[in-house]
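Section 3.1 - Work completed
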Amino acid sequence: MNTAVSKTVKDADINCRLNRLINLERLVKTFCCLNRLINLERLVKTFWLDSIMRYYSVASIGATPLQKLLTLLLVSLVFATAACGDDDEGKKTVDLFEPTKFGTYTFEGEPNIAADDALDFGDVPLGTTASRRIEIRNTGREDLKFGDLTISEGFELAGGLPDELEPGENAYLTVFYFSDDEYGKRGTIEIASNDPDTPIHIIELAANIKFPCIEVDTSELDFGLIEPGETRTRSVVLTNCSENARSEIQRTDIEVPREFVIGNVPQGVILEPGERHIVAVTFQPARPGVYEGELVFLTNEEMRPEHKVQLIGRGRSPDCPITVIDALEPTRGEVGTAQPVGEFNGRPLDRISLDASRSFDPEGGELEFFWTLVSKPTDSNAILEMGTEGPLNEIWMDIAGDYVVELTIASSLGLEGCETARLTLHAVSNEDIHLQLVWDTPNDPLQEDASGSDVDVHLLSPRPGARWNSAPWDCFWMNMEPDWGQPGGQDNPSLDRDDVDGLGPENINLDNPEANTTYSVGIHYFSDHGYGTAYTTVRIYIGGVLFKEILRRPLGDQDFWHVADIEWPSGQIVEVDQTYPTFP
């Protein structure tokens, strides 16, 4: 069966399907190829001869015989070229299911090697062997091809690297060190590849080297907004993170206004392994305004001797504008408010209205609004739907996780809001089982448009005769809301959406699963639409908590991946991880 035309989709996806089926350029070429099969003499008599002679008769008025002949040849060439274009017969086949290309663009992918820059064996007792493993990843969009692999004397490699890694793939190197003397050892691994930016990737090796290490618990102290004359104290904690070496805070450089008071400043302080030093910082603004400073701790670390901590505090202005965000999920009526900080609890796929209309200026001036989406879950494609300005906005929480939105305001007098409003939106599934599928197709340069790869999520119930890709016991795009439990009860699975053009997400929810039942989770690459390998990520939530995450599993067109089984009521997830060329 030609699956490229068998998939029935929701009304919202019809245009996407039509875009895949219609390609005007290829249809014209198909018509021309059919014309080539027609007898040339009949073709000239029925169409081309009449057209050519019509143009010839007009262009040849007053021309010499030679000019008439050249005109006739030129017109014939133009018509023939316009009709059929390049003669690629025998080189291509017409594929009406290849995705439509939108616009003109140039795509230049390149490989990218990603690996740690250093590997420390720590303390290795005399006469013993230690091993460490290094992950090598291709985070680019072309195949990463390896050349020479060398390692310094005193260290050894087990095996090597493959000839190449596809985008998203990884490999591991195992490094051995034998401690044969009382002295430390340093070395390197050098990996040659076709990464244009890093043709030789160097990994520093060390064993039995006593490295000093200082860890600072924060890179910024934000004292927030306080009334002039009040005080607020925060702390910076510096810890010796080395297991075997003393570490020294050699000097502290201080550049702060007098509104900040620094206590217990470390100068030449030596810390034993695990020992801490606490620096107290007090902020006391004398008047309204924003105050900033910086602490720089200089240490005896080799890799990162300098640690910076930014200080920021704000003195409240009695007349500054007040910033407020109200959030609303209109279908259920759930609300949340940030004034200036707040939270909203919603569900995956909720579309949340954001309203800053309750912000106000005590002086009565007009307000300007500036929105920022500070953070969102990994693999989310959420944006602020109405841009970055104006009192109203909207966000679609496409997958489970936390979304952080900030709002700043300014009055027509140029006075900024007292504080930035910060709203954290939680998208948490309220179902017992929540499956999330997202994917990346590196060969598709415009994955957000209406043409892309199609991957599907499946949930199978173990009933007699249950089969993948078949109703009623497989919940998937052709069986989105099956009735598995009590008739009409609240114990049935549902597929929230069927994404047919790339990225996802696709989510399946199941509340009140049946006891003593094992459900199976599967992923099917329905169609690559010419874009090749897709890298699929699956997350399994139990009771709204992420219990299993498998990242960037490569699948080819029509591949089926049996991901895992979920045992109920224990909620235990048993990883199966079996891939088949199609449904098993």
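Second construct:
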Amino acid sequence: MNEHRRRVGGWVRALAGVALVTAAAVGLVAPAAAVPAPAVPVSPSPGAVLDVYGATSAGDVFYNAAGPEPQGSVRRSDGTVTSLGVTLVGRGEVGPDDQLWLPAGAALRAFSADGTHVDHPIGGTGAAAVVNEVRIGVDGRAWFLDKGRGAVGSMTLDGADVTEWPAAGSGTLSHIGKGLDGRMWFVRTNGALAAITPSGTITNHGSLASAVEGIVSNPSGLYTAVQGRLVRIDGAGQATVVATPNGNVGGIPLESQGWIWIGTTSISPSERIAQYGLPIDFDYFDGLPQVDARRTSYAASRQGGFVGTIGGQLVRYPNPDIGRNVVVRASVVEVKGVRHLRLTGTARTPGGQALSGTFAVRMEWDRFIPDGFTYYENASKQIGTMTISGGSGSLDVAVTSTLLAGTTRGFLDHGRCCGIYLQAPATDAGPGLASRDASVADSNGTLELSSTMQWLDRMNGRALARPMDPAGSVYWAQKLAGGTPRATVTKSIVDSTAWRRQRVASAYQRWLGRKPDPSGLEYWLSWLKTHTTSELDLALGTTAAGRDASGTTDAQRGKHLASALRLASASADAFTEQLQAGTPWSTLARSAYFSRSAAERRMTDLAPRSSFTPSLAALVAEFQQARDERGPLVKALATMP
């Protein structure tokens, strides 16, 4: 293998407890009461914008400041400020020698907390070296990317020994991080992933994506941020998405003593830091409770946690157990004829401390907009409330028509279904918090009513012209599952005040062409308890108002009678001729009402015809004998598919 190597006498300092450090501009915002007491003294220039690059084992912090302080500075653990004399640039980290290692063109620059720095040239011939990132490997050497030469290199921390290995491939070298197997992993701007051993053997591992935000390692794996997702990479280079934060990943992931912290962006300009406990196959933590619109940054601390800025202040978060993790899981179960979303929620800190709270349960889905284009928009609504006590809670939400109101076709297929998340509003005591989404599509790929609930909705729609209310549908579905006959359920609906009210209203509309006035509605509602439906229709229809609702000519009256009985226009002509021949309106209305054609039309309107429903002749015969449609109606609705 071709390599460029420079060896000078020296020794390599042993690695002791190195934490991988990266720096990224992210928002770190919290209300004053929620911010931990800063272990690092407050900056004397309030409102200064600080870029934090890392901290030494003694607690000295390297940073940039805008304002009265020098741009490149060190905040010493005793509170004093030391100028480094230059602006800090590039990506690097604090090594076990307590020096900040950064790119410096054709050299690596090592800053000491006393304000001095030493440049360690890379040397070599050919194209000029241009270092763009430095990291400390598990072998205790400073590893770097040289985008000028397209090479990966390493250097002892005294600068005495330097080696570079050409890294062939397209795309500019962008990020490098250590793997715990001794290899260093690096990516290019086009997402190409590769690993290099301490001896210089490079293995390519395919491609991630163009939007890669740094590489960090942890005992559970190697991590990077790819297109807004936190991704774990195994030793074979296989990438697995392990977390999708609430908001795109906006900063570089960093590792510190068993935790991964990343910056995430939500609604501009708000940003936050998210905390992930490891292993992180399903856990997501909101690390800091609120966001400051001013530019801030953070870096891992060798003392644990991280150091960062809030406004013009330097703060240290030594305890990783400051976050809150809320997780919701959902399944679809059917119990006693009722399909439910069975939700379980947990809330705890990364360290396992149980939390409590009340959360709104929200469902979101993609709604189709029929405007001539293939277009969907996101829709959401609250579907319940979950109380989490002692770290856990649960909730069953019945899948009813109300739950699915507004969805396409009254159900959600797998392509548009759907997310459940828990959400708590912000209060004076703290910020709002939301869990990540949990899918609730069932094993069949759809979220829809149970077959029993679908029949209840169809039956109620025929009887009352609306779906059954959620409480009623759950109650009757459970009754049906327990053995109650459909006819019993249907009869209870037809015998209800709601059905009589709807029936009086429809009779007014049929015969008088208007809605009933309140006093009339209450009168006929009570009257119908002891009278037949035919008596109701004829009591209204044989009045002068019922006769002249559409006009006072015989032709208008004949057409009105045919329309009220839902008969063809030929019947209207026959009715007109009878009126012109002197037949009284009341006589004609009664005769037409009980005619076979009118009775068949009325019975046909009761329910959809199927092989399960009684024959039309049987329904007509029962109606003509009882002169009341409620008996046939119950039979038709109870047997409808």
